[in-house]
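To the wet lab folks,

You asked to see what we're planning to order before we commit. Fair enough. Below is the target structure as tokens, and below that is the sequence we designed to fit it. If anything looks off to you, flag it before the synthesis order goes out.
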């Protein structure tokens, strides 16, 4: 048998493979949203359900005489990086917009709560526009030199800002996208808040477009953000991303013209297999394709054409470049934490399947045609893999099932709760816990960790951050994906 035929045969078998144990997607949805409460910074509300957490970082912004209390810690550390936080908010909003109808009322409410915790903070980051935008709180290297729970932090909480005319197109573009998307998510339930978000989104995009360049090009910001969240992909994708969400939120032809006029010069045709906190091109194409499906806006058809190429890339038998799969069937695109790519792509594929279904169309990949359910089967395979149907027989969601990572690379989860042991753990004392073989005392329920390697192996030690560190931008797109399958649990 030829190698190409063998690969295709294995791929088809993986898609047809039935789940060994039926999964509780409603439970996974519930826990995927609950996770965000474990990442909260600031003063926690009375409704807090992740009870082992306490208040933290209550003086953030003090060095710049502003209030930057709140928001999310993006991963297992205690820094607030605004760039990935904004992407997290965008994806929580998109989950609500596209898949909110599949969520039970209480989970929809909690998802909006998770989103609002982010957008309330993002409003603070752009509160001094048009002159200043806030970039980050906390110094990454001193923070990474310590292993402390957030409630004990004694590392510098320096806030960093960019002043006009300093460039910040990627950061401001992503914040504009987040606020615009959230304005849609809140439009029915909180119309006044929705208007506030949209007004600020418009203003933030103006800064992004007027002061073009990457936010880490600013000397005072570079050392704070890099190498952790440099915008390695540049800033043009965020300008299109912000414009696309503002077009959807406002319907204004100004953003339509912007998208049409800048598509080729911004390189959207060449980076369509990238999507995540850094690169937005794949998401731009899929997001804009919806308007072509629904309203047949011909000027935007080139975006839909590229979106089609993007989705076709998940089928190995099609022509052109492809996404890869591990031997166990996981969509794989090498990044720092593997499941962030899997989560983001699963969302895009499922969203596109929804667009196809609602317009009674199928996916055209050259001479090959695929029904929307073919796309959904690929996504279901990813979901089931994450929840335990994988060669390690391990759930990569903490707290789901009986077998999941117990040594998560996460400071607050790994150190005894402040509710149990009020005495502070010092920087070096925390490292003793970090290097121990003991399971984390606090279960970060719902956290989806970085995940396996290209050969499906997984090293479940907190010392191996690539495998065991959770991030908000892994969970955010999975909220929408879990919502769909919780409403369609018997889909095969």
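Sequence we intend to order:
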């Amino acid at each position: 048998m030829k190698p190409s035929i063998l690969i295709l045969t294995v791929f088809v078998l993986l898609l047809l493979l039935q789940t060994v144990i039926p999964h509780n997607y409603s439970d996974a949805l519930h826990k995927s949203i609950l996770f965000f409460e474990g990442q909260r910074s600031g003063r926690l509300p009375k409704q807090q359900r992740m009870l082992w957490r306490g208040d933290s970082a209550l003086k953030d912004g003090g060095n710049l005489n502003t209030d930057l209390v709140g928001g999310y810690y993006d991963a297992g550390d205690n820094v607030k990086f605004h760039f990935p936080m904004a992407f997290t908010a965008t994806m929580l909003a998109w989950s609500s917009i596209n898949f909110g109808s599949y969520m039970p009322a209480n989970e929809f409410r909690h998802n909006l709560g998770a989103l609002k915790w982010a957008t309330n903070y993002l409003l603070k980051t752009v509160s001094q526009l048009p002159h200043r935008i806030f970039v980050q709180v906390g110094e990454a290297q001193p923070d990474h030199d310590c292993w402390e729970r957030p409630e004990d932090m004694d590392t510098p909480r320096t806030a960093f800002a960019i002043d006009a005319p300093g460039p910040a197109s990627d950061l401001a573009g992503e914040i504009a996208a987040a606020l615009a998307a959230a304005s849609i998510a809140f439009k029915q339930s909180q119309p006044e808040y929705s208007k506030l978000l949209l007004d600020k989104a418009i203003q933030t995009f103006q800064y992004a477009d007027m002061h073009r360049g990457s936010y880490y090009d600013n000397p005072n910001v570079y050392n704070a953000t890099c190498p952790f969240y440099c915008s390695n992909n540049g800033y043009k994708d965020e300008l299109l991303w912000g414009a696309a969400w503002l077009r959807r939120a406002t319907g204004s032809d100004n953003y339509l013209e912007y998208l049409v006029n800048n598509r080729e010069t911004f390189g959207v045709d060449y980076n369509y297999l990238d999507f995540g906190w850094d690169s937005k091109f794949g998401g731009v194409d899929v997001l804009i394709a919806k308007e072509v499906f629904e309203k047949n806006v011909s000027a935007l058809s080139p975006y839909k054409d590229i979106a089609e190429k993007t989705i076709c890339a998940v089928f190995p038998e099609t022509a052109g470049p492809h996404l890869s799969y591990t031997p166990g069937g996981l969509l794989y695109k090498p990044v720092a934490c593997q499941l962030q790519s899997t989560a983001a792509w699963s969302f895009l594929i499922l969203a596109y399947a929804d667009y196809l279904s609602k317009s009674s169309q199928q996916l055209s990949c050259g001479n090959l045609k695929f029904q929307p359910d073919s796309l959904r089967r690929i996504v279901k395979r990813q979901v089931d893999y994450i929840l335990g149907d994988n060669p390690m027989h391990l759930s990569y969601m903490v707290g789901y099932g009986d077998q999941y990572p117990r040594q998560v690379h996460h400071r607050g989860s790994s150190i005894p709760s402040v509710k149990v042991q009020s005495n502070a753990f010092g920087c070096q004392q925390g490292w003793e816990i970090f290097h121990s073989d003991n399971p984390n005392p606090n279960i970060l329920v719902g956290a989806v960790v970085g995940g396996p390697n290209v050969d499906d192996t997984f090293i479940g030690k907190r010392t191996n951050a690539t495998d065991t560190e959770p991030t908000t931008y892994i969970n955010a797109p999975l909220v929408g994906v879990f919502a769909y399958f919780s409403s369609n649990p018997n889909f095969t």
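Structural context that might help your review: The CA atoms of residues 148 and 425 lie 6 Å apart. Confidence is low (pLDDT under 50) at residues 3-7, 12-19.

Thanks,
Computational group
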